[in-house]
């Protein structure tokens, strides 16, 4: 956590900046193990809406499931329309990607460039230069104008020893063992805090302890899949939840220097048809109360 904070890429922002945070998509190959496929349409609708409204998209890790999948190619082919939309964000300098424990391969810039060259063929020199400027970060420090303190943004597995230091060990068991145990017997993956309540609480407590040691540094993260939106008097640890909740996705918005926890889901119309809508779960609250 200390290293991620010290090395965080600084992102200067105006107070009228519009940001949307999603994490833990775990995009897969559309097989039984692809937890994202049930929410594909919800996410695509939400992301298109944010693009049209001029938001900057910040993905807080585990956007791609590289534990259960050895290759990026089937993931790209399955979710090509989403990758094309992300590329449009990038063309407009409105995309920031972080790596998590399930896509830690992206911390290697050579790995990222190899995928970019293989699957995202530019149409001209300008697009080529912009495309190969794409990079994954471990953490960001959002710095708003006229504010002394910023917001630390990261995946959150930095407070989860086994999923940070020994992620390859966990990947091996998920890829070759737990994936099938879950399919055949419904056994929860013990390496995932999202499916292990004790592990989830342990990670949250470590993050809160770090925040207190660092003078109440505000943090936005993912990893546990559990949305968090503290009151201003509480420890400023926010969590955007995940995009693999049953029939819904959750995220965090910052707009007009206010923060909100939101959910995209299906709602019934009067004619019994269903429509994708956004619901504000918590907020909006001015960031002044947390910084």
Describe the structure.
This protein has 291 residues and is of the alpha/beta class. The protein has a single domain, classed as Purple Acid Phosphatase, chain A, domain 2 (4-Layer Sandwich), CATH 3.60.21. It is 32% helix and 23% strand. A hairpin with a 2-residue loop joins strand 10 and strand 11.
Q: From N to C, what is the helix and strand string?
A: HEEHEHHEHHEEEHHHEEEEE
Query: How helix-rich are the residues, as a percent range?
Result: 25-40%
| Strand segment count | 12
Overall shape? globular
CATH homologous superfamily placement: Metallo-dependent phosphatases
- Coarse structural class: alpha/beta
Radius of gyration over alpha carbons? 18 Å
Number of helices: 9
Uncertain segments: none
Biggest pleated sheet: 7 strands, mixed
Short descriptors:
291 residues, alpha/beta, Purple Acid Phosphatase, chain A, domain 2, 7-stranded mixed sheet, globular
How do you describe this structure in short?
The chain is an alpha/beta fold and 291 residues long. The chain has helices at residues 2-6, 40-52, 73-78, 80-91, 109-119, 125-131, 161-164, 167-185, 197-213; strands at 9-13, 19-22, 56-60, 95-98, 136-137, 139-144, 151-154, 219-221, 237-239, 248-255, 258-268, 274-286.
Topology record:
Elements: H1 2-6, E1 9-13, E2 19-22, H2 40-52, E3 56-60, H3 73-78, H4 80-91, E4 95-98, H5 109-119, H6 125-131, E5 136-137, E6 139-144, E7 151-154, H7 161-164, H8 167-185, H9 197-213, E8 219-221, E9 237-239, E10 248-255, E11 258-268, E12 274-286
Parallel strand pairs: 1-6, 2-3, 3-4, 4-5, 7-8, 8-9
Antiparallel strand pairs: 2-10, 6-7, 10-11, 11-12
Helix pairs in contact: 2-4
